Amino acid sequence: MAGPTTSARGARKGGDRKSKSARAGVLFSVPRFHRYIKKSTPKSRVTMAAAVYTAAVIEYLTAEVLELSGNAAKDHKKQRINARHIFLAVSIDEELKKLLNGVTIPQGGVLPHIDQFLFKTKGSVEAASQSVSKTDSSRSNAAVTPRAPSALTSKSASAPGKFSTSASTAKKTAAASSGNANSSA
Fold first, then answer.
1. Mutual orientation of helices 83-92 and 48-75 as an angle, nearest 10°?
2. CB neighbours of 76 closer than 8 A, spacing ≥ 6?
3. Phi and psi for 137 in degrees, rounded to 5?
4. What percent of the chain has pLDDT above 90?
5. 101 vs 107: CA distance, rounded Å
């Protein structure tokens, strides 16, 4: 007797079955993207090449974001990627930042930024304190009277009973304020 026979019925005509995604060489589902594109444009015809191209672009963007956010997670000594790492990855990369310009990532936080003005060195603090002491010594002991804007002074002359900023009232307010200061001391 002869060995096991193979019948023609058991073998397929086309060989092994391959999915459209495997044939295109992408991981994302090509038929799913084809279905989504057909739903979004119901009156027009959509080729399978459009779905393959869309799946490839989405796969590339996903890989790019995952790579950059994985690097951000490693920088923070974490093994899991969270929303903060994705936000930092997108904000660092200029092209992704431009692509996702108006997108808000929930739980992403804000970019870390401290203005250089807040970083005061020891030398600049000493210089600032010396300039303050110089301005204090240059001031006189006379009371400072507040000045009214020029628009109010011109209107006050024409409208009695409104605010008047004549020299006599300025002297009276200065005397009153210096008198209050002397009585409280």
1. 100
2. 85
3. -75, -25
4. 41
5. 17
